[in-house]
Specification:
Rossmann fold, six-stranded mixed β-sheet, binds magnesium ion, alpha/beta, binds adenosine-5'-triphosphate
Length: 512
């Protein structure tokens, strides 16, 4: 099909189109999709919404040839398409950026793109470079062509994925929750790229997202999946966020409620977690002179533009990065070294930002749930499976996880993976919970639920450190907000004085 340079400018809303017809797909007893039909048009941003586990990814994997439907078909401009692999999809002009990127990490940007668009063994790197530069400029997708992919932040790796899809000549581009891994600034630039792809190149875009504000900004058409069925497909114009949420979840209440803070949260109690001048020496990144204290029942929010030391701080508190200076004190006892074991023994629990890194995809849900407390279920010779199963079943009920205990973790929908990890953290009743980006990729209901879980944990005296790029989340939950800038805490603001403006200035390194 067309290359980026030669993409036909299609008129908005007109042909050509792709039709998904009566797609059904079951995994064992789970019916992921039931008789789903959907039309995609060139030059349109088509938002695909639905609760966690509704079937969005499954449907798009089928369109991109990563999965085969049990029945149903795909047509382009009236002709049936046979899509048995991503290669077939790309040949039909369909590209996809999945949530788990498929770049070769130890190769350069240019090599990754060249590999994907190569039709022969002879690759003309100079030509590919020129094409990258031209496509980058055209769509506002700046990338450093000679950088090794693993050295790039997620936002740039994502751009490389998008360029790769565009340069292999796609006229339709599927983006599966592209904004879930981005901070606010990067989200805005991605939305701008999406607009340009649509308007300047006439590309049809499928945008999966849980964030209504994004849908409102860029979507031309919106389809809602509920439990594997399309419950609505219409032009975005005139449809409100509230209506969309109702379509997604039915008439049930969204359950959003403001956290009730006590007048002076536990000021009288001594802090349970204290960091004193903690430093991690690094050429780039690192931490310097980080100090804060968290009391039982208190939520300390950590705000900052991504890449200002938040990830390093979480790594320090999970024991994966050793500190080079300063001290960590839990319940009055100074840790000799901050190893994962010493932190866990001291009662510190973690929800890391990368849910894939803290779970084993091939293991079952029941096994993943006890990964950090295996000894509790150890019998004489083997694990006590029955007890593990009943522990798992009650977690599934309590945390409303859509999964069965024996299902492989890797087959859960994104949101349900996150719930399993939260269940693992909270079912140990940690004294201190370090929680990073807890609602990334969660649907509206699950987001409210997870926020209420965090509030509830604080009510039961857990000290919470909440790292989030979602400022609204921090303002809703935190008693105090610590702002990180260039590896240091540049200010700690009490909830009563915290506003988007005051925190925003600290985040930008302006205020003192
Ligand atoms: N390989 C698989 N094996 C078993 N079940 C699967 C597999 N892939 C998906 N499922 C199930 O199909 C259903 C739909 O999952 P899907 O990933 O499409 O949801 P989703 O709408 O993308 O949700 P999310 O917003 O959480 O990403 C879920 O119940 C999921 O557990
Ligand atoms: Mg999904």
């Amino acid at each position: 099909m067309n290359s980026v340079e030669g993409v036909v400018i299609a008129s908005r809303g007109g042909a050509p189109s792709i039709y998904l017809r009566n797609i059904t797909k079951a995994y064992g007893e789970t019916i992921a999709l039931s008789d789903v039909s959907l039309d995609l048009r060139a030059g349109e941003v088509h938002a695909l919404l639905g609760e966690n586990g509704a079937g969005k990814t499954t449907l798009m994997k089928i369109l991109y040839g990563l999965s085969q439907p049990d029945s149903g078909q795909i047509e382009a401009d009236g002709v049936a398409l046979k899509i048995e692999s991503p290669r077939d999809a790309r040949a039909a002009g369909i590209g996809m950026v999945t949530q788990h990127f498929s770049l070769v990490k130890n190769m350069t940007v240019i090599e990754n793109i060249a590999l994907a668009s190569a039709k022969t063994f002879a690759i003309d790197l100079a030509r590919v470079r020129a094409e990258i530069v031209s496509a980058s400029t055209r769509f506002g997708l700046d990338v450093p062509p000679d950088a090794i992919v693993s050295s790039l932040p997620i936002s740039l790796q994502q751009r490389v994925e998008i360029l790769k899809a565009l340069m292999s000549g796609c006229s339709y581009l599927i983006l599966d929750e592209p904004t879930a891994v981005l901070g606010p600034n990067d989200i805005d630039s991605l939305l701008e790229v999406i607009r340009r792809l649509r308007s300047d190149a006439g590309i049809g875009i499928v945008l999966i997202s849980h964030k209504m504000a994004e849908i409102e900004k860029v979507a031309d058409r919106v389809s809602v999946l509920r439990r594997g069925q399309v419950v609505s497909s219409s032009l975005a114009n005139g449809i409100t966020s509230k209506e969309l949420v109702t379509l997604m979840v039915g008439e049930q209440q969204s359950g959003a409620e403001q956290r009730q803070r006590s007048a002076s949260p536990s000021q009288s109690q001594s802090p349970i977690l204290v960091l004193e001048s903690v430093g991690v020496t690094r050429e780039a990144g690192g931490l310097s002179d980080v100090s804060f204290a968290v009391r039982p029942g208190e939520i300390l929010g950590i705000a900052g533009v991504s890449g200002n030391g938040q990830t390093e701080l979480v790594n320090v508190l999970s024991g994966t990065t050793q500190i080079d200076s300063g001290t960590i004190v839990v319940e009055g006892r100074q840790l000799g070294s901050n190893t994962p074991q010493s932190l866990m023994r001291a009662g510190v629990g973690i929800l890391g930002e990368d849910r894939h890194a803290s779970a084993v995809h091939a293991l079952q849900v029941v096994e993943n749930l006890i990964l950090d407390c295996v000894e509790k279920f150890a019998g004489k010779l083997q694990l006590r499976r029955k007890e593990m199963l009943s522990h798992c079943e009650s977690a599934i009920t309590q945390f409303e996880i859509k999964a069965n205990p024996k299902q492989a973790f890797g087959t859960l929908s994104g949101g349900n993976m996150q719930k399993v990890l939260l269940a693992r953290l909270f079912s140990r009743n940690p004294k201190v919970a370090i929680i990073s980006q807890p609602t990334r990729g969660l649907d509206v209901m699950a987001t409210n639920y997870v926020r209420s879980l965090i509030a509830q944990a604080s009510k039961q005296s857990t000290a919470v450190v909440l790292v989030s790029e979602d400022l609204d989340e921090i303002l809703e939950l935190a008693d105090r907000v610590a702002v990180m800038y260039r590896g240091s805490v540049v200010g700690i603001v009490d909830h009563s004085e915290a506003s988007r403006e005051s925190i925003g200035e600290l985040m930008a390194g302006i205020a003192k």
